[in-house]
Amino acid sequence: MTTMRKEKAEIKFLDVSDLEVQFRVPRRGGFFYQKSAALKAVDGISFSMTRGETLGLVGESGCGKSTTGRAVLQLLRPSRGRVIFDEEPIHEFWKKKGQKWVWDQRLRDLRRRMQMIFQDPFASLNPRMTVESILAEPLRNFDVIRGVERREKIQHLLTTVGMDPRCMRRYPHEFSGGQRQRIGIARALALGPEFIVADEPISALDVSIQAQIMNLLSELRENLGLTLLFIAHDLAAIRHVSDRIAVMYLGRIVELASSQTIVNRPQHPYTQALLSAVPVPDPKQEQSRQRTVLSGEIPSPINPPTGCPFHTRCPLCEDRCRREIPVMRTIETGHQVACHLVS
């Protein structure tokens, strides 16, 4: 019985393979004309998740984290690659209508099972709608429940995220940032999803409120059996809620391992630099430890460097790093690194 449960738990619930997202952006080519350039926001990343798992996706601003989350949910159509959600190839659920690509009905039907919590809790809520209308909208779009049952469902959603149901006649501007984010979480839960992408849900909040939102997401994951892709740029925060962590740099995943392994035995120089930036609560240890300070800025994805994308800032860079792009290699069970210097 134990073996059967283990095998069932290891079945891939989400499988992302060679995912790439390109944008065409105008670039000035002279005094009188412009030419289009390709911006690779996501450059061929692969990862998988099991049911009930929380995967943390961490990296600097502009590295492609949010684009990855949107492409996984097919809010953006990937330029290349596969996204398999519960054995459904959702990257194929598009059809061309004129000059545009639109969702197929099959993808709309799966929307109830996949939801997103957006980064800005104020911009993602319609200021002209009450909380009741905001939470009723997904229920109305999918014609789930009506009348009194819908109202009871909305009250239950607000209670679930720790808010008073009596506030549902109020508007978003009447709430604090943390309360607005709770409303956004309640909206994501309205249709009973199995998979949620949380796109930096704590970055716009105060530190004390961040802890409350993270604890809430952890409780919801345990109580509702959610599978969670948690996107953040704060490695100190993300390690407390994630089973595994994927470190992303310039559109690529450079290291992927369990949270404990990433914190205790980081292998990629970029991961080591991120961890060295996390403050230590012990003043003596904080003064004595050595920090890895990265020089320069993250390169432009329009004109990425040759070889390893991190070599322009890496303190351990060698000639090979400037010439060859490192491939993701498994150095031990469950630990993958894309670096020439890791054996």
Structural category is: alpha/beta
Shape from CA axes? globular
Helix percent reads 25-40%
Query: What is the rounded distance between the termini?
Result: 38 Å
Please indicate the percent range of residues in DSSP E strands (runs of 2 or more): 25-35%
Order of strands, main sheet, comes to 8-9-10-3-11-12-14-13
The secondary-structure element order is: HEEEHEEEEHEHHHEHEHEEHHHHEE
Q: Count the helices. How many?
A: 12
Query: What's the number of extended β-strand segments?
Result: 14
Q: What is the C-alpha radius of gyration, as a whole number of Å? A: 22 Å
State mean pLDDT (0 to 100 scale). 89
Q: Major beta sheet, specifics?
A: 8 strands, mixed
Low-confidence stretches: 1-9
Walk me through this protein's architecture.
- There is one protein chain.
- 31% of the residues lie in helices and 26% in strands.
- With 343 residues, it is an alpha/beta fold.
- Strand 13 (329-332) and strand 14 (335-337) form a beta hairpin.
- The longest helix has 18 residues, at 207-224.
- The protein is globular and about 70 Å long.
- Residues 1-9 have low confidence and may be disordered.
